[in-house]
Amino acid sequence: MRLILHGGAGPWEKDNHPQVLDGMKRALIAGWEVLRGGGSALSAVEQATIILEDHPLFDAGFGSFLNDMGEVEMDALITDGRNRDFGAIAAVMQVKNPITLARLIMQNSGHRFFVGAGAEKLAVDYGLRLVPNVSLVTEEEFIAFQHRLTNADAVIPPGRGTVGAVALDSVGHIASATSTGGSPHKKKGRVGDVPIYGAGGYSDDRYGGASSTGLGENIMRHVLSKQVVDRIAAGVSATEAAVSAAEEVAAHIPDPEVGVIALDADGRLGASHTTAHMPIAWIDAAGDLHTAMTGPYPLEA
Ligand code: GLY
Question: What is the pTM assigned to this prediction?
């Protein structure tokens, strides 16, 4: 069993590092408890992601960046490596935990990808309670949005804080989960990489799984998560796969602001980022818990 999480590639203010790592640790423990209890990789990545969606410092669920209309618009993807399956949602505005809706869609809808009002109608059909958009807005994000509105020369910060998880369970199944509020001050209706199968996440029990983070436009162009799993399938380690796939994006796009986490079918872990930070949390081969704000990461003991 293995579990690795990211909390979003980007520049994280130093003052926030202890709280970010504490949130990552809590999410890791929640996901790990699922795996230790015999739960599935799917349930582990969902549970870990819910903790990060509910945490105000991460750009997912509560605490998401606001779009240019001052609204939270969220995207999420869950992937199931048993049969290369996925569920995805985009531009949802009233769902507290988008990753749960993505899983319900994969397992119940007969379809795979829903957007906006249609996704929210399904949420109600599946018994999820819709929440007011404003209940997902933190005071910090509201102040930042107002500052951008009233200051024409306000700098829109690079994104950070998309969350993701990849797990290998006790019976060898692999799953990934990725959830985001998208980039700061994005145009209403803009959708990034996260819900795009193979870009925001990917898993295949035969080889491994990955979850990406960073500037979605660049991740989509390189189908980053699938790139990483394809490299593992070709025989390289999860670390080499993550590093070389991120390097390839950087070779084509200067300063691409991307990051990715991965694990292979034997549970070996990998992670890489081109940004100042990418908080990650992972359980090593000995079952010990680790967190770090930036790579290169000593992922294996
Ligand atoms: N990676 C998140 C986004 O660009 O929307």
Answer: 0.97
